[in-house]
Amino acid sequence: MTHDSAANPLNSSVSLPQFSPAEILPWAIFIGLLLMLGIYFVGVEQGAIAIFNGAYVHEFVHDSRHLLGFPCH
Q1: For 19-23, what is the mean pLDDT?
Q2: How far apart are CA 29 and CA 11, in angstroms?
Q3: Calpha distance 38→34 (Å, rounded)
Q4: What is the pTM of this model?
Q5: Of 35, 73, 69, nearest to 55 (Cα)?
Q6: What is the H or E stretch that residue 42 is in?
Q7: Of 60, 67, 27, nearest to 41 (Cα)?
């Protein structure tokens, strides 16, 4: 019995798409800004010195602060 190489997934190759740096750069900048905004809210927003009044944001991200090792009290 003969085996076809298309039937054997170990012998088949997968072609990945090629992206140029010009295509990746806007997405990398966007994701980097989102990450920096997330780090601000988790690590810096305290309620006393904050962009938003009150401690609503601090209380919303309180457990993630402890999980990531940021001190808050």
Answers
A1: 89
A2: 38
A3: 6
A4: 0.58
A5: 73
A6: helix 21-43
A7: 60
Residue identified by tokens 């990398």 is: 28
pLDDT tens, position by position, 47-68 = 556 676 767 777 777 888 888 8
Mean of all residue pLDDT scores within the chain:
78
User: Residue 37 has which token pair?
Assistant: 């905004």
Long-range CB pairs of 65-72, under 8 A, 24+ apart, other chains included: 68/42, 68/43, 70/42, 70/43, 72/46
Contact status, residue 55 vs residue 62, Cβ threshold 8 Å: no
Residue 53, both tokens: 């009044």
Q: How many CA atoms lie within 13 A of 61 on its CB side?
A: 20
The encoded tokens of residue 46 equal: 């305290």
Q: Is 9 helix (H, G, I), strand (E, B) or coil?
A: coil
